[in-house]
Design a protein that fits this description.
Helices cover 18% and strands 25% of the residues. Strand 5 and strand 6 form a beta hairpin. Helix 1 packs parallel to helix 3. With 308 residues, the chain is an alpha/beta fold.
Length: 308
């Protein structure tokens, strides 16, 4: 009896979050990693907080930035600052509180992210749930996305801390268990992982952490807590997290921190045993865009029809 080992392919991801409409610094400003142009990748992931206040002109600026990025696929979710993408919150709270009842047209906002212009820019806006994509290199991956995070200063996409949004039996859109998901893209962090504020508060979600332990994706990208920028390699058997080191000068030269955990790297990621956790917030605590994007090389399975 003949058995076949599934083929895989090295695939590059660029990770950003919490850009808050900040423009890229000019290419000649080599003192900042977040500068033109964004590093190229197969897939760009944006983990939310596209804007500061959810205004249409802010979305326009962010879409222009993403449209210029060199990536085959650009997957985007909202964050708590993108108040006009959370219709329920905006109509009940956000419009009155943030926009002083002079509201934006929510249909226009949604069309900006899901209409023809976004498609031309290869932008795919996702809400909460599961999607599968196949790339030109044959890589096939399944991603779970959610913009929701524990209630935070009365902003958008909130849930109460005692609500388990991500695990059976009560979650409406639970995160599937291993091996169903390759990538998690959430706005908020799991509890205890790159989620510490400047006031030494641990503000990640305990229910999300339980779900990530069940799911054990290859990559979990998030943001929300600007001070938590960084990456860890989580080994699940012992729940041990190793901080990913980087060289400051190389980060500036490359316009990103590059992490290679593909099959050809010195230490390939062991799927099901390890997860690369990345807080990709571009802004620091003072809302200055001084943090670098993350560029990650992953090994992904080749989809049916592409295997030789």
């Amino acid at each position: 009896m003949t058995t076949h080992t599934p083929q895989t392919v090295k695939t590059r991801f660029l990770l950003i979050s919490d850009t808050h409409t900040a423009p890229l610094f000019p290419s000649i400003d080599t003192s900042h990693a977040y500068r033109e142009p964004l590093p190229s990748a197969d897939v760009l992931l944006h983990a939310g907080d596209l804007t500061k206040y959810g205004y249409i002109n802010e979305y326009e600026a962010t879409i222009d930035m993403l449209a210029a990025a060199d990536a085959e696929l650009k997957i985007v979710i909202a964050g708590n600052h993108d108040i006009t993408l959370d219709e329920k919150y905006y109509n009940s709270t956000g419009k009155k509180w943030m926009h002083r009842n002079i509201g934006e047209d929510l249909d226009v906002v949604k069309d900006m992210w899901t209409g023809e212009e976004a498609k031309k820019a290869r932008i795919v806006y996702l809400e909460e749930g599961v999607r599968t994509f196949t790339l030109k290199n044959g890589a096939r991956f399944t991603i779970y996305t959610t913009p929701y995070q524990p209630e935070f200063c009365n902003w958008a996409f909130p849930y109460e801390r005692d609500e388990d949004r991500f695990n059976p039996p009560n979650a409406k859109n639970p995160i599937p268990s291993w091996p169903e998901i390759d990538i998690l893209l959430t706005h908020g962090p799991p509890m205890g992982i790159l989620d510490e504020t400047s006031k030494d508060e641990i503000v990640g979600c305990e229910h999300l952490l339980r779900a990530v332990k069940r799911c054990r994706p290859r990559l979990h990208c998030f943001g929300h807590i600007h001070e938590g920028w960084g990456a860890q390699r989580m080994e699940w058997a012992e729940s041990e997290a190793a901080t990913i080191p980087f060289d400051d000068q190389r980060m500036l030269d490359d316009r990103c921190v590059h992490v290679d955990v593909s099959g050809s790297s010195e230490k390939p990621l062991k799927w099901g045993e390890e997860t690369l956790m990345v807080n990709a917030s571009i802004m620091n605590r003072r809302y200055q865009p001084v943090n670098a994007p993350w560029r990650v090389d992953l090994e992904l399975p080749v989809g049916e029809g592409h295997q030789s």
